[in-house]
Give the backbone structure.
Amino acid sequence: MVNWESKLSDYARRVEPSAIFALLDMPRAPDTINLGPGEPDPALFPVGRIAQIIANELTDSGRARTALQYTVNAGLPPLRERLSALHRSRGLPSSKDNVLVTSGSQQAIDLVVSAFVQPGSRVAVQSPTYPGAMGILKAHGAAIVTLDDAFREAPREFAVIYVTPTFSNPSGETLDIAMRRRVLDLARGSGAILLEDDPYEAISFEDATPSTIQSLDAKNGIEQSQTLYTSTFSKSLTPGFRVGWLHGPSSIIRKLTLLKQSEDMQAGTLSQLVAAEAMQFVYSEHVPRLREEYRRRRDAMLGALERHFGGQAKWTRPAGGFFVWMTLPEHVDAVALLRVAALQGVTFVPGTACSHRGEYKNCLRLSYSTNPAATLEEAICRLGSAFRSFQKLTAGSR
Amino acid sequence: MVNWESKLSDYARRVEPSAIFALLDMPRAPDTINLGPGEPDPALFPVGRIAQIIANELTDSGRARTALQYTVNAGLPPLRERLSALHRSRGLPSSKDNVLVTSGSQQAIDLVVSAFVQPGSRVAVQSPTYPGAMGILKAHGAAIVTLDDAFREAPREFAVIYVTPTFSNPSGETLDIAMRRRVLDLARGSGAILLEDDPYEAISFEDATPSTIQSLDAKNGIEQSQTLYTSTFSKSLTPGFRVGWLHGPSSIIRKLTLLKQSEDMQAGTLSQLVAAEAMQFVYSEHVPRLREEYRRRRDAMLGALERHFGGQAKWTRPAGGFFVWMTLPEHVDAVALLRVAALQGVTFVPGTACSHRGEYKNCLRLSYSTNPAATLEEAICRLGSAFRSFQKLTAGSR
């Protein structure tokens, strides 16, 4: 057989298994509760309405042919129209030419990074940051700098600034308006493309969320802005359809559309059609239910953390999204704790998976999205007992 | 606004609009018949059966949750199982670990090129070749060599050899077994990855098609082979689902799965489920109907070419697929002819779009897939009259 590994491109060499996946084979109790994945709960999918939309589209033979055929590379025109209307309803100037439909927001991030990052390009990110984005940045050879370091540095020169300012994965935190302006100023000062990743925006638990950075940037019109905004239907509707989108200046959108065309032609046509039709009820009817249920789960997790870890650890109080970020005492190694916890029936993502330089050894990302409140309470109870076992186990070595 | 064009990566700079798209704005008669696109005819989609499959999946709430949720990056396990069974039924050893489900075969080509080609890598291709693959190769900076030149050369050193040996897009031709062995020998001699692109395999008009190159290569087992095979459901079922696949050694498939994960996570889940279910009737019941209808169309086009161009041009006689490749007298510029033809109500892809070095100026790719036989006859009649107008117009300048 050919020695294919010796033939890999530099890009392919830099693509590595995610740290999260490496943990999947760890021994665990049979009924382990997994607080790892950032997935929506499938029990909350609006299955009946989706089935009805598809049945309607496929009953009419003319519509069915459109639904199953190729469509334009930038995405199904009615979906792009409705997405631009969504942005207009939030006060942004927008037309369908400002929208590129992507195969999930993972692809949106990959397209922007492919377009603007190459080996050695400097990219600033929040710390901690989304592991999936970090994987993409590493694959493209980015020189990653934390935002804090970026603010301190002079001169400030970046190809891309990547932020998840709202209900961040993994921290659950939301940047306030002052910090959003500071990030925008950094982008403007360095001429960087600012990639605003906003997959959790629909899952908000409070009345007001700060304006998107893109809307701060687009005060003089979207065409003059340097922010590319991405979101997805993966949390608000379902992830299996793989429909996300990019919103930004039409000139950049046109270029990114060429990349998308070269890489996979287009997002699925029927998926886009379902998303377009579902937009008529997703934000008005479905998302309010999701918010209520996910807030209940967040509250259950926060309450259980208080009961089992009060005074011994810190954690964030997310105003939306799927994640709580927990910080244990400094001597705790979260990967070692995970091995103990898995045997006691609970798993999570260790903090180091969310840093490009191995920080957050004593931190945990805890997801409250996939389990109902009672299960989350049991999970945190198990985590508390795993933590106490771990403390005993390591007491001798300290 | 930021000067984003100056910030583009080398990769993004190399991604250019396809020559085919540049022609879309050409003035044309209102009822123009387009022989350009390599699309299946949506009138032939098995809409009722697809609707039934989806209705079944979404009626059961457990199945619906699976259908709409994330799935594993390599693809839905039942689909990979059935695809590996398909390869086994054709005499190849295969398990689901040999299969990566992609978002169409365009992505399969892009993944393989991303993995094994970087600026300066030498890649051998048939000439003419599929414009979409050439776009990918150019984007990744490949040094493209025609197979003919590659056979003549010594030493032979290639990163990738890309071929569409069966019912080629654009030529409609099929490599015979001797030529397949020669291509395989070239790959073995140069240690190259051999990418066998086989999107049209189901659309065959004759009883026997030569064995795939992968099956010649995998005589000692798929794990020892250096061929990656890709095909798609875009022609045999529908393109809108964006489901294709790669089949090859499990070690390479694992690496390509990591690239896929980084780039867009996975192909659409419901789309994969439909493909998996549809495999129970696609090859046994649906494909025979497609073959019959597309053969009728091929015959209509070949007959009309004989009537309108007999003695004045040459063309291929495809044993399957969607395309006839036509060669006009050497002085004819197909792009100039296209301008005349569009005004007379027929369009096609000029041959230069299918060459990396501007060859085939006097050639045309004619697709018979999207129009019924009578329309094709009218189209070739118009093309004949456009050709005669063109000959008169240019007679003075010769």
